[in-house]
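User: Quick sanity check before I run a bigger batch. Here is a single chain. Can you write out its predicted 3D structure?
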Amino acid sequence: MKKTLILLLVMIMVIGSFTACGGKKDAGNGGDAATEVKIGINYELTGAVATYGEASVDGILMAFDEINAAGGINGMKIVPVKVDNKSDAAEATALATRLMTQEGVVASLGPATSGNFMATIPVAMSSKVPVISASATADEGVTVDAKGNVNDYVFRLCFNDSFQGVTMANFAANNLSAKTAVIIQDNSSDYAKGLAKNFKETFTAAGGTIVAEEGYVAKDKDFNAILTSIKGKQFDVIFLPGYYQEAGLIIKQARDLGIAQPVLGADGFDSPVLLELAGAAALNDVYFSNHYSSLDQDPMVQDFIAAFKEKYGSDPNAFHALGYDLGKYIADAISRAGSTDPTAIKDALASTKDFAGVTGTFSMGQDHNPIKSIVVIGLENGVQTTSVKVDPK
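Assistant: Done. Predicted structure follows.
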């Protein structure tokens, strides 16, 4: 009887030990080791560039919902940890630290803008947790450091500014037959300065002439002095690198002054607020480089548009599409890594080949920039009517 009791106690202890192992939480690997994977979402949900952050997050969460509904990543449910960096670089840094050292995420997505994203890079490198932005387009200081070394834990899904500036200069020269141009740039923005630099170099190398260069700073409202200054000059196009807030007002005030030349910009134009600020009548002969076009008849693009409309009741823009691809990209990498270890995920992100997304098919380059095409969109009365795809050289 005594031996039977001892044997029973031993069996209970063994069973108990297995039960304890099965339910153990592993915060360092992003949640329940067996059933969940935690992914950070560090975006501009309020503040000056909230429209970019909100759109990106809508796309990411749509992708996560689809993945979870289909069974998750290798059977693990994605648990997003969403935070608002308030469009502030210092806040983005603080939140990146919290996500990686306290929340235990296996990777962090965002922020949307280059400056805010760059503010999170030191945290990612020291914590050895991947950070990925779908829209940080700055040429310098993102995936490669000042010494030319690749930041191992930093990736992006978008082309960089030099490609946008080069593309728009070639578009002006080749598609619009422009010989002369005016540049109006946001002098407070590295994004705008990088675009302007590359546009100028490419346009002049193609035989064009920059007849005037004007500047403003973010949050300016009245651009009539600048526009009056250029109105008397002879030029074929205006290149306007900047964000939609000022671009919308500049385009409206230019048209009001009778300046009818084509206006060229970049992905900073892609916001419904551009139409609100400029008005439909002003948005003719306006062209901008972008990551995606709703005019693309690829079934993957059209299926995404239909599903987005059903979920959110509106048309998706490029930031929605980039966010959606970002959500699918990180899930694909975790699946291929076969692990929730951030270093294994980093290696899988770096080795990505022929990933098919709504914003195009890409492989990840050695510098952690994707090799993918760009789209130049044309507006008529504020509506996208033309789309030209340009492949990388």
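The chain has a mean pLDDT of 90.

User: Great, the batch can go ahead then.
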